[in-house]
Design goal:
230 residues, mainly alpha, two-stranded antiparallel ribbon, 2 strands
């Protein structure tokens, strides 16, 4: 099926963007048709927090009801009732969170000894959650830019200069890479694919190493052509 998909791609070389889109779509569609798709994560409407239980949900709803009753009739009895339920709910949530973190710690300790891959994946995910986005860049003169529209404009200028060099020296260098003895061969691409480590997460292109390793000659030829354009 993979060979059939790539054998239908156009023979004439196109621009890098269209070539990559065709390659990626063919590969992902073939993988989806062969392996199917699976939903990862909680179902729609399901709480993501591990400590959220049916018991917690009930006490929170009870607290909200008691608060609405006090708003409708602001008597000392209703206030005392709401305050008591609120304190109980706060205590239950605190205990549930503490228990959840304790279980998480035990699980991480177990993964460290028995499933190191899962352990480090969790560490990286937690680390990324604490990263902050950069809200400033420097322009061509080294001046700091903080306004969003100017930042976007600067990024556009940067990538335009990077991928569309105006000097003759860079153009000659690009021509040398795409021709002569420096051409990338199918054997080199196949060897590079073979050296990829399996079990790694897909990047923004949604392509996993295992998907590339299923490529036949037509697929490798297509990828080699893309490398030649670059």
């Amino acid at each position: 099926m993979m060979g059939q998909g790539y054998s239908q791609l156009p023979l004439n070389e196109g621009d890098i963007e269209s070539e990559w889109i065709l390659f990626r779509k063919t590969l992902i569609d073939a993988a989806a048709e062969t392996c199917g798709l699976k939903r990862i994560g909680p179902a729609s409407g399901q709480k993501k927090t591990a400590w959220w239980t049916e018991e917690i949900s009930k006490i929170i709803n009870k607290k909200k009801t008691a608060y609405r009753n006090w708003l409708q009739q602001q008597t000392s009895e209703n206030w005392h009732n709401y305050k008591q339920i609120r304190d109980n709910a706060k205590k239950m949530v605190s205990e549930a969170k503490a228990k959840s973190w304790e279980n998480f710690g035990h699980q991480m300790e177990s993964n460290y000894h028995t499933a190191t891959k899962v352990f480090w994946q969790t560490i990286r995910r937690l680390h990324k959650g604490g990263l902050k986005q950069t809200r400033s860049v420097k322009d061509a003169n080294g001046e700091l830019i903080t306004r969003e529209e100017n930042i976007l404009k600067r990024w556009k200028e940067y990538f335009t200069e990077l991928y569309n060099p105006s000097s003759g020296h860079n153009n000659n260098a690009n021509e040398k890479v795409s021709g002569g003895s420096n051409c990338i061969t199918m054997d080199e691409v196949a060897s590079a694919i073979k050296s990829l480590k399996s079990g790694k997460a897909a990047g923004i292109d949604e392509i996993r190493p295992e998907m590339l390793k299923t490529l036949n000659d037509d697929g490798i030829r297509c990828l080699t052509r893309i490398c030649g354009i670059v």
